[in-house]
Specification:
By secondary structure, the protein is of the alpha+beta class. It has a domain of 70 residues. Helix content is 34%, strand content 32%. It contains 2 helices and 4 strands. A 4-stranded antiparallel β-sheet has the order 2-1-3-4. A hairpin with a 2-residue loop joins strand 3 and strand 4. The chain starts with a helix and ends in an 11-residue tail after the last strand.
């Protein structure tokens, strides 16, 4: 084997080893991170429709987390809901069940 071929094999092997190490070393994403990414993605691509807030429940703090407010809402992709507290709902047009009323950068609650 000449030195150029040997050098190429060493460089490619090193790159593969470094890539495998980086992939295997990465920690899996937790549920909170996955939910934050879902909200960010939906905030960017979601369509907006009218909806209705049906109930609001305050969730007690658990496992060192802050207290949270759970919004229970309904919406119709093909129409407008007029009962209850009016709100705007952002949803994924390809999966209308994937929706949100509040995210880090958007809020559909009307006052």
């Amino acid at each position: 084997m000449d030195s150029v071929s040997l050098y190429s094999v060493v460089v490619v092997s090193g790159a593969i080893a470094a890539g495998a190490y980086a992939v295997l070393r990465r920690k899996p994403k937790g549920p909170a991170e996955l939910e934050r990414e879902r909200r960010t993605w939906l905030d960017g691509i979601g369509r907006i429709t009218d909806g209705t807030v049906i109930d609001v429940q305050e969730m007690a703090p658990a496992n060192g987390h802050h207290a949270a407010v759970l919004l229970i809402y309904k919406y119709d992709v093909a129409g407008v809901c007029r009962l209850g507290l009016p709100t705007s709902v952002k949803y994924d047009p390809h999966n209308p069940g994937n929706s949100l009323v509040v995210s880090e950068s958007w809020m559909g609650l009307r006052q």
